[in-house]
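Quick one:
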Amino acid sequence: MQLMVVEDDEQVSKALVAVLDRQGFDVVKARDGASALATLTPATDLVLLDLGLPDMDGFEVCWRIRKMSDAPVIMATGRSPVHARVKGFELGADDYVTKPYDLREILARVEAVLRRRRRETDEALDGPVVVDGVTIDLATRRVLRPDRSEVALTRKEFDILGLLAQRRGSVVRRERLLRNVWGSGWKGLERTLEVHVASLRRKLGEHALVETVRGVGYRLATTE
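Output:
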């Protein structure tokens, strides 16, 4: 698994990398926010983010990461823990550790966050998803109406619906849909995404499974 360590203190960075290397992680280093954002890829499984970076505020870096990726983020800082923790969680961070920290604690938190993410993924992929009588079978890539007739979807239409089904009611950002379905986060593709969502809705007919979350993305409707 690939972990990114965003830390401008070379001594701290080296110690973190040494510990993570010993645990078998593929570690990528970044000294500031700009290089972290430039280095982030779909292969990044987790980000260890120091908030005290030289070029931009760590909270802004977290916000930008969350716009680009759903990789878990663990924040580290010596700032006021309550205020920073709340703000970090609001921006989409998954965990928080206060400096100075023990390297064993960092490792334990990394493993805990990754376990939680694997559990969420396993639960999301555990069998077909049924909403309003419509069955979305992720394994066979089939969508069945309540009368068991099949909805004929294109590959990208199913990729969109399948990703929403995996999250089961959680909002999936446009950026993530673009990266997962089209392999790019380019803003110019947003209109293409909207066209595919509109086509998907037409094919599903009366079953309003795809909900728009204005300014953010889409989610699969939840059952009552």
